Amino acid sequence: MTPEIIQQIANLAQLDITGQEENMKTAIEDIFLLINELSDVNTDNITPLNFPLDVLHENYQPIRADEAKDYDLKNHMNINAPLSEDGFYLVPKVID
User: Fold this and answer.
1) Is the CB of residue 59 less than 8 Å from the CB of residue 31?
2) Which of 21, 35, 38, 67 gets the most CB atoms within 10 Å of its CB?
3) Burial group, residue 56, by CB count within 10 angstroms (0-12, 13-18, 19+)
4) Which residues does residue 88 pair with via DSSP β-bridges, in sequence order?
5) What is the dihedral of CA 51, 52, 56, 61, to 10 degrees?
6) What is the pLDDT of residues 63-74, one digit of tens each?
7) pTM for this predicted structure
8) CA nearest to 52, candidates 38, 42, 63
């Protein structure tokens, strides 16, 4: 890993690493080693999780079904309007 790459990473992360380039190089190399270790793990027979907390409890964080719903909120929203007529907001005339 070159000093230019380390500086580019620091710039992207908006970090000032002046004087810490060698420590950053070691830390980044350690991260890449960990990623390589994880990529070596065989996950062929592992079922993907829908949500990571499913492992803790079956109903811990239920995911709502993705269903389209027709909400008619026009009348509900017009309750807060100072003036409304036929479902539309009434506002003072601005342009003559």
Assistant:
1) no
2) 21
3) exposed
4) 85
5) -30
6) 677 888 887 787
7) 0.44
8) 63
